[in-house]
Amino acid sequence: DLSQYDCVKVDITNPQDQPVRILLAVENPNSNGRENVSVESITLAPMSKATLTTRFGVWHGEINRKMDSSKVALVKIMLDRPKVAHTFRIENLRAASSLEDMTKVYESEYFRQLQPALGRGINLGNMLDAPKEGEWGVRLEDSYFDEIKKAGFDSVRIPVRWSSHTSTTSPYQIAPEFMDRVEWVVDQALKYRLKAVLNVHHYEELFSNPDEHRGRFLMIWKQIAERFKGKPPALTFEVLNEPQKNLDAQRWNQLLVEAIRVIRVENPNRTIIVGPVDFNSIDALQSLVLPEDDRNLTVTFHYYSPFPFTHQGANWIGADGEKWLGTKWTGTPLEKFAILTDLNAAISWAVEHKRPIYMGEFGAYEKADMESRVRWTKFLAEEALKRNIGFAYWEFAAGFGVFDPQKNQWREPLKNALLSRE
Fold first, then answer.
1. C-alpha triplet 299, 57, 342: angle, nearest 5°
2. Each residue of 263-320: pLDDT tens digit?
3. Are strands 20-27 and 74-79 parallel, antiparallel or unpaired?
4. Alpha-carbon distances of 389 from 205, 303, 347, rounded to whole Å
5. Can you tell me the distance from the alpha carbon of 8 to that of 39, in angstroms, rounded to the nearest whole number?
6. In degrees to the nearest 10, what's the CA dihedral of 81, 88, 281, 4?
7. 98 with 24: CB under 8 angstroms?
């Protein structure tokens, strides 16, 4: 009977030179692998350690209300379909409260001086990150920056698909007209006194073939760093959006150091944003290794949980997207509990490593009902700011959009959810 607790935790050490993925499952009698079972997983980078937490009532991030914590029959620690032998160490398996006392975090000297990085922001998504601007139905307009500033936002994140505008042979030149366009966007943001985040987005070839595209990626950053070196500190660089696929933690930790080194040649004092692998997930923060001597780094994570709610009806998800249609987020204690647990994990990591942390993306797709979208967005934004976590909503004027470009007006309930100061 674990009804006085809300989760099970275990400390795991990976002493190997290869990553390992571990699952922690808590089961009721007669569980079938999904119903009456709670499970979470974590991927440990080589020579690292972390705590894996499985919340009761959650199955890989999805709410699963059939779990009964008063009737726990089995706790299992498993390898995730390993193809090779692995060695790892487990210690201190315990029932606990995942919303355990955060006093040490909140009263720490680092947390008390921490400010929400970049404040409240919006992603200018589906624009410069499309293969060609306009292909995904929206183009950047000067008026958008005015709208964003007047509404009360502090910053914009500018996703850019540089790889579609860069030659495939050395010296990997970025098309001059595209570079001019990106600079215009940055200048508009700065003109309207908005902080700006400029990133490398949708570099799919790098994710699939990281070794082959390493040189091209670094040359892209060399050109960006040189072009924007004279911009004010309100411009921040983000090294890479959502490292994934074959760009695993080991490769990424090496590549990010090289990219930071390239940027620092012309931008020694500019803030740089870096996130972990696995699509910038909170769970992957433990695998992120940053250069200790560079303290002007901000760490980012992305948040789309519960995924069946935030991505219902999204055509790029496939059949599951349609299956999830009608999923609501009503703000039950269990639904809120899942978000609070994740945000606590993020800020705890930030305080432990003394790094500012930034929720660079979060949002719910337009196929979800507006009431649920507003409720989820407001709760997440408010709770992030309580933890000194700045954010950028995904996104401004497309499928997740807080602004309607056809009517040229804000979707007021969503805008208010992001700007609420209650």
1. 10
2. 999 999 999 999 999 999 998 998 899 999 999 999 999 999 999 999 999 999 999 8
3. antiparallel
4. 31, 12, 8
5. 10
6. 100
7. no
Collapsing DSSP to helix, strand or coil, 285 comes out as: helix
> Within 10 A of 87 (CB to CB), how many other CB atoms are there?
10
Give the separation between CA 279 and CA 300, rounded to whole angstroms: 10
* Location of structure tokens 């215009």: 184
Which amino acid, 90? I
Structure tokens at 369: 């009902």
203 contacts 163 by C-beta, under 8 angstroms:
yes
List the structure tokens of 357.
């942390």
Give the single-character DSSP code of 82: -
* Beta-carbon contacts of residue 185 (< 8 Å; ≥ 6 apart): 124, 128, 140, 158
Structure tokens at 263: 């940027």
In tens, the pLDDT along 351-395 reads: 999 999 999 999 999 999 999 999 999 999 999 999 999 999 999
Threshold 0.90, pTM exceeds: no
User: Rounded CA gap, 336 and 69, in Å?
Assistant: 18
Residues annotated as catalytic are 242, 361
Cβ partners under 8 Å of residue 168, min gap 6: 216
